[in-house]
Specification:
Layout (H helix, E strand, L loop, with lengths): L43 H8 L1 H4 L12 E4 L5 H12 L3 E6 L5 H7 L4 E5 L3 E3 L17 E3 L1 H8 L4 E4 L7 H14 L4 E6 L3 H4 L7 H16 L3 E6 L1 E2 L13 E3 L5 E5 L7 E4 L1 H15 L1 H4 L3 E4 L2 E3 L1 H12 L3 E5 L10 H13 L17 H5 L3 H4 L8 H15 L46 H5 L1
Parallel strand pairs: 1-2, 1-6, 2-3, 6-7, 7-8, 8-13, 9-12, 11-15
Antiparallel strand pairs: 4-5, 10-11, 12-14
Helix pairs in contact: 3-9, 5-6, 6-8, 11-15
Length: 453
């Protein structure tokens, strides 16, 4: 685990350095068959922008610059990075906490000129030689909240987007963040929450990581902080051919993929492209303000698909066969203790032996909230990236960044007819791929923080 937080200068802004390749000669770029562009080289739109920019470009009109600062924690997570990317592009300032400066997203955030970065953990080990796993659910003796770091992040902030994770005691960290936000009089606090299923039905088990967020949400409501709560669906971005539990797209010898999970094949699930769509939605919440959204819960999911429909969308976008296999969650790599407990509870909640799709618990716990998908999300942001588009344009790029080469295979796959839906595969998928010893993605260095946040 990372060492104790390093001292931070509160006035330090890490700015983008000039690229050493700025004056380099053009070089050939390797492209694979999944690379796509919205416009062709002969497009009149591109032609206009290249050859007639001076004569066709309209006069610029002055635009107001947002005079507000957003406090963000776990800034290299997919949700937070999405918000930072779009908020800073339109003029907001951000004060962001990063666990470390490793990886492509941390680099992106830390070199953004509109971001003030604070590097350190939200928890503190009382003993420097304490090497225990700090992801276990609940109180861990000797692990306390880094309140000084939280106070630094919130200094001068009027808005906040908070997505807590299981590093340290998540409930204690979340409550401390809410207390600091109250003290500095944050005008609008948006919290990324999730349900405690046992609160909706005592026969349903609580998922440790989600129930912790539920407790933080209840505390935020209790202290009267002007807040909105977003419930994010399953990330499109979770899929990988690495041996990662629950969302492994297992590459087969014939070039097809198999996804195995406990979800009923005919039960609807909420889906979201976290990196593409969280930012615009949260920004709209800030624009509308607490007068419209205070105390509200929002299902942030842009598609409501069964596992079979999700595989069909993935198959259509990717141009390769994708089958769904209903089965237990297989853990083939090293994972944090807290996430292991989450997977055990999740498999119990979404039992792979439940024969009735109607009896599968709603992903968000509350049926009314779940049924608001995708309308509630589309009311905030109307340009989402669906699972089909993600599979065709982004998935191959992320796979390539992880050292995979299947996307360069010249063998073409005959796409199925539009009416053909992948059937439920009752056979165990065959895979001889070696087990990856951890959650680090080779090229992007996305560790468990990015996968789960």
């Amino acid at each position: 685990m990372p060492a104790a937080p390093i001292p931070i200068r509160t006035d330090l802004v890490i700015r983008t350095a000039p690229s050493e390749h700025a004056n380099a000669s053009p070089r050939a770029v390797t492209r694979h068959k999944h690379t796509r562009s919205s416009y062709s080289e002969s497009s009149p739109i591109l032609s206009m922008s290249r050859n007639n920019s001076l004569s066709f470009r309209p006069l610029k009109r002055s635009m107001p610059t947002p005079d507000k600062t957003i406090a963000v924690i776990n800034a290299s997570g997919r949700q937070a990075a999405s918000l930072i990317r779009i908020a800073t592009a339109v003029g907001y300032k951000v004060r962001a906490q990063l666990r470390n400066l490793e990886g492509v997203i941390a680099t992106e955030v830390s070199t953004n000129p509109n971001v003030t970065v604070f590097v350190g953990e939200l928890y503190i080990r009382k003993k420097p030689d304490d090497n225990r796993d700090v992801t276990a659910n609940g109180h861990i003796p000797g692990i306390v909240v880094n309140e000084d770091l939280i106070s630094q992040v919130f200094c001068g902030a009027q808005l906040a987007f908070i997505n807590t994770t299981f590093y340290g005691n998540e409930v204690q960290v979340g409550e401390a963040i809410a207390d600091v936000a109250t003290r500095v009089k944050v005008q609008h606090f948006v919290y990324s929450s999730m349900p405690d299923h046992a609160a909706y039905n005592p026969e349903w088990p609580s998922l440790p990581l989600w129930s912790a967020k539920h407790r933080v949400e209840e505390y935020i409501r209790q202290i009267g902080l002007p807040a909105t709560f977003v419930y994010t669906g399953i990330y499109n971005n979770n899929f990988t051919s690495l041996a990662y539990p629950l969302f492994c797209m297992d590459l087969q010898s014939d070039g097809s993929f198999v996804w195995q999970a406990p979800f009923h094949p005919d039960a609807k699930l909420p889906w979201l492209d976290a990196e593409h769509d969280v930012g615009p939605a949260i920004l709209q919440l800030f624009k509308d303000g607490p007068s419209k959204w205070n105390g509200k819960r929002i299902a942030l999911a842009y598609e409501h698909l069964t596992p079979l429909e999700a595989c069909q969308a993935f198959e259509k976008g990717l141009g390769r066969r994708v089958k769904y296999h209903r089965g237990p969650i297989e853990v083939k790599c090293k994972i944090p203790e807290g996430y292991r407990d989450q997977l055990v509870a999740l498999e119990k909640l979404f039992s792979p032996t439940n024969p009735d799709a109607e009896k599968q618990p709603p992903y968000f716990g509350d049926r009314v909230l779940e049924d608001s998908c995708p309308d509630s999300a589309l009311a905030l942001w109307e340009g989402p990236r669906g699972l089909e588009e993600y599979a065709g344009e982004i998935f191959p790029l992320e796979e390539e960044a992880n050292g995979k080469t299947w996307m360069f295979d010249d063998e073409e796959y005959d796409e199925p007819a539009e009416s053909e839906v992948p059937a439920l595969d009752d056979e165990e998928p065959d895979s001889d791929e070696s087990i990856d010893e951890g959650l680090v993605m080779r090229g992007l260095k996305r560790d468990e923080e990015q996968w789960l946040a």
